[in-house]
């Protein structure tokens, strides 16, 4: 296999964590750090702009030979479970190629500990001051929460690459043309405690690399996102009602964005649900008085609703003005519109309109979670809320969304798969699973490959990341 066909990173994972044949890895809910070590590495790599392949650590070693990854091999599992043959494979590649192997510290006497020149011993360290002293510029981070690491015993050929309150935290050792970086801590657990651990790991990957590498530099970047424009929940929900922003307010947002060279992602719900109750308010669509039909869905960009007997009598909810304000930001290159469901409400809108708790229960204002499964399954595919939402955004905004933001962060795996089918990623692949039966995961679009050199200065790295930075954000 020629080097240029390889992914920059190979992650060695437990198959229970990243099951082969599944197109969605992770649940969206909480998982213990020990259950997502590989997933956390994969996510960090993709957010940095690097392609990733995955192979598996099994009961007798690795599923296949270590033949992918031309910058880094991440052992995202207990390195003592790799087996002698797998460690010999790592050593062979290190002798021949300028790659970096990253893993947690192994036990004394183990095959991996002998390769790494470092082992964990009884005892631990605790501290808040992180320092990088390896290749590239020195960096210091001060943690708000104390981090914990294992005491490490090192061979004379190993050196400290990072410290925690002066004690070894990452140890490096040159092996042939490559190097092994040994972590004296569990990376996912440390990242949960303080973001400085993420910064340290990213710094490790960038500055330890022994071959050309570029990355998305998101330091000092604030990711701006506004959800819920377009949705009717701001009119109907007792606990979540508020007036619309007018064109003047949207223009003020634009001034602030332009002053800071910023850009805003807007999670828009393009379907507006009518409760059918004329006593609560007056509804106009496209400038005309609309017949009040319970559960009917109208195009949000065409709606005006004046509250008469609802939560805020006298308030005008002007969705037309909201739409114009958003379009002005888009025309100025200051905002993008993404899909925040179709209506943000349970897809059985008629049942909602007839329910006694329709204005009180939060469950009615969740569109894609488990309670909506049967309603969505009974519909033809072209009437799936996501299909309707994508079509509406294309019609009124002239844009196809790149991102699905599930209302209330409630979703099921089938919802993500449906969205992946609605938005095919032409020419882009997800993480490759390296094993006897190769599989693809299409929900993680692969960024365009960058180029550069190890130790690339930040200005050049930003230029190389170029037009993909906003998409990564």
Question: How are the SSEs placed, and which strands pair?
Answer:
Elements: E1 9-14, H1 37-47, E2 52-58, E3 61-62, E4 72-75, H2 84-96, E5 100-104, E6 106-107, H3 111-116, E7 118-132, E8 139-154, E9 159-164, E10 167-175, E11 178-183, H4 187-193, H5 195-208, E12 224-227, H6 233-236, H7 247-259, E13 264-268, E14 271-273, E15 281-285, E16 288-289, E17 297-299, E18 303-307, E19 316-318, H8 319-331, E20 335-339, H9 349-354, H10 373-377, H11 385-397, H12 413-422, E21 432-433, E22 439-440, H13 458-465, H14 469-472
Parallel strand pairs: 1-2, 1-4, 2-21, 4-5, 5-11, 6-7, 12-13, 13-20
Antiparallel strand pairs: 2-3, 7-8, 7-9, 9-10, 10-11, 14-17, 15-16, 15-18, 18-19, 21-22
Helix pairs in contact: 4-5, 7-8
CATH architecture tag of the largest domain:
3-Layer(aba) Sandwich
> How much helical structure, as a percent, in the residues?
25-40%
Question: What proportion strand?
Answer: 15-25%
* Main beta sheet strand tally, sense and closure: 13 strands, mixed
Outline, from the CA principal axes? elongated
Give the structure's gist in a few sentences:
By secondary structure, the protein is of the alpha/beta class. The chain contains 14 helices and 22 strands.
Task: Tell me what the structure shows.
The structure is a single chain. This protein has 2 domains: 3-208, Class I glutamine amidotransferase (GATase) domain (Rossmann fold); 224-411, no CATH class. Helix 2 links the parallel strand 4 and strand 5 (100-104). The two termini are 33 Å apart. Helix 7 (247-259) runs parallel beside helix 8 (319-331). It has 473 residues and is α/β, with parallel strands linked by helices. The strands form 4 sheets. Strands 1, 2, 3, 4, 5, 6, 7, 8, 9, 10, 11, 21 and 22 form a 13-stranded mixed sheet that branches. It has a 4-stranded antiparallel sheet with strand order 16-15-18-19. Strands 12-13-20 form a 3-stranded parallel sheet. The protein has 14 helices and 22 strands. The protein is 27% helix and 25% strand.
